[in-house]
Design brief:
Keywords: Membrane, Transmembrane, Transmembrane helix. This is Diguanylate cyclase/phosphodiesterase. Helix 1 packs parallel to helix 7, helix 3 runs antiparallel to helix 4 and helix 9 runs antiparallel to helix 10. It contains 26 helices and 22 strands. It is of the alpha/beta class. Strands 14-15-17-18-19-20-21-22 form an eight-stranded mixed β-barrel, surrounded by five helices. It has a five-stranded mixed beta sheet with strand order 8-9-7-12-13, sandwiched between helices. Strands 1-2 form a two-stranded antiparallel sheet. A hairpin with a 2-residue loop joins strand 8 and strand 9. Bound molecules: ligand C2E. Ligand C2E binds next to strand 15, helix 15, helix 16 and strand 19.
Length: about 725
Amino acid sequence: MMGQYDPLLVMLSLMVAVTASWSALDLSQRIHSTDPRAARIWLFSGALVLGTGIWSMHFVGMLAYALPMQTGFDLLITVQSWGVSVLVSVLSLICARRMRRSLALLAAGALAVGGGIVVIFHLALSAMRIEPGVVYDEHRLFIALLVAAAVAGATSAALRRMRALEGRTLFLVKAVTSVVVGVGLCAVHYLCMSATVFAPEAASLARHDIDPTWLGLTIAVGAIGFTWIGSVAALFDARMEHRTRQLAMRLKAANSELMHAALHDPLTGLPNRVNFDAALSEAAARVRAQGGRLAVLFVDLDGFKPVNDVLGHHVGDEVLKCVARRLRAGLRDGDAVARIGGDEFVMMSEGAIDQEGAGRLAQRLVDAASQPMQIGTHEIQVSASVGVALFPDDGDENRVLVCADTAMYAAKHAGRNTWRVYAAEMDGGGPDILGMQRAIRRALDNDEFVLHYQPKVAALDGALRGVEALIRWQDPERGVVSPGEFIPVAERFGLINAIGFWTLREACGQIRSWQHAGWRIPVAVNLSPQQFRQPDLVERVRACIDEFDIDPGLLALEITESVVMESSSSVRRVLEELKAMGVTLSIDDFGTGYSCLAYLCRLPARQLKIDRTFVIDMDHVAEARHVVEAVIRLAHSLRMEVVAEGVERPEQVLTLRSLGCDLIQGYYFSRPVPAAGIEALMQGDQLTEQSARVHALAERLRADSGYGCPPALELVAG
Ligand SMILES: Nc1nc2c(ncn2[C@@H]2O[C@@H]3COP(=O)(O)O[C@H]4[C@@H](O)[C@H](n5cnc6c(=O)[nH]c(N)nc65)O[C@@H]4COP(=O)(O)O[C@H]3[C@H]2O)c(=O)[nH]1
């Protein structure tokens, strides 16, 4: 028995095959997803779409062949054939995923899939339940099997190639592959059909089951719809994955930027202290394991401060960048350089280095630093003092840097612009910095710090107007250690923040207890430059004020001139935020740095403290007196209050008073005293005595017709 092909249905079967191939390729691309669960889901969805496509292509193809008998389809066998089709597709996609691992596996898989496609054809045909049964031309069937295997193999290979493509090329390759695969699948079907021989008296026993026309149309439309849904899902997922990948890349880039910022000095781009310490520990571990030596060099610039002060921070910054470039240019394999402070750099050199080699390296650094540099219109020349220490000869990785630092000081004492190698005798004269660093940590844990308070009094009548909190350290071994000694060490070893915030809390606690006693005494706390640059400074100040429930107006923060004069927007913002909180801002050590008057006008500070050095010289050096006078005028024109520091003698009081200075602080009135001393002062005796001194001075001044304080004036004893 022979049938006839309906060209429309043949086209429809081709359409189904091409559409299913396209969609299956779409979905199958996703089976390489990095998430194994998602990859499994995509594999089964792809198999479902491909299986349904192959299966429906067979059915539509069979319907396209109109036999001269009434036909129908058995529901159970129809469903079974669909199940087998999906299973075969699962197998084909698994082969596609694993083909990288072996070509033999690819060939075996392709044959199995090819065989599966032929079996699906057979099952689909069986659903018609033809009696007597059909027979197959084995040769043609074998050719169909080979074509099916080739289609399966080509699909796997195309899938592999497509992984490396994107955009338009991917679209084109996918379109061509879908057409080739679709045509191939149809070819398999029609080859199978041509291999099928129907007996002349053949009849379909399933002719009363499912109507073939409806079944065909439903399957074709359903399959095309189904495959398009799959494609849309795959497209959506691909977009999501692309976006997720982009986000992940951006996150990674942001992370590495953050990491870089945490480990590098923003000005020079060199590694910072934390980074250097880690590199030093690693290098020390290598030397311990493999032997050899490590040279550590401490580089401190000579003459940098005057450049900064006179020519401004921007020129100072350029000088530092230039020195950093020169140090970096001299690096060799196994060397590292870092900036660890304002004008301090450290370097380490790994390998079998000896004292002589380290000395040569130090000389190179000294030479590099002392070359003149052109910054804008200025030709600038600085020099460097370099200290050298060796690991493990001079100590472990914690100590070797301190030794290099000590040697650097020796180089400074030797006249600067030179280098020295560390020797144990160098420790003799100077403080044991490392020991002190450990002792400071212990002091913080053991509460060995106390605050003393030095009064600030009104120049006019000697009334107490506030106090400055000054830290004192009662070290069980060293006795009372001056802040001038331990604060620089704390700054160098990153302990100043802990000390600074301890002082802040302690001072706020004191304000509260005085507030409870009925005294509103403003307390000024020194903020170190490092503490000022802490990103959470404002929050910590606010937290202290809230914790002790104090009037923020009673807390003053003293910030050194050099810090507030950094005209960066972050400094301005912090100052504005502190002011907005109600805290008083005071510019400390005024006159010792480089001040930009235009910037000073815009500062939200309320108080300006004239540095002690001007007050000391005021009586006998005319220039110092002129500076004090000018600073007082300037501050008043900016509506700032002026405090003169370090007032020790009555002559100074009189001069300052005559110049209109508002507040006076110094040993003349009181040394820094424990809180109880301030309380005694508040309760009467000492204040009255000091006020009496000021009044007596004022009387003498009024009696004198001249300007200021006559040198011969006999004063009340100080
Ligand atoms: N010769 C002389 N000296 C006078 C006179 N009146 C006051 N002084 C001293 O001058 C220093 C004033 O503090 P400073 O300039 O802020 O200088 C302070 C300040 O920069 C720092 N410091 C003290 N306490 C703290 C603190 O809690 N945190 C921070 N960051 N620094 C602190 O240590 C520096 C030294 O503090 P001290 O030794 O307490 O020294 C104090 C004080 O005792 C005087 O009439 N004559």
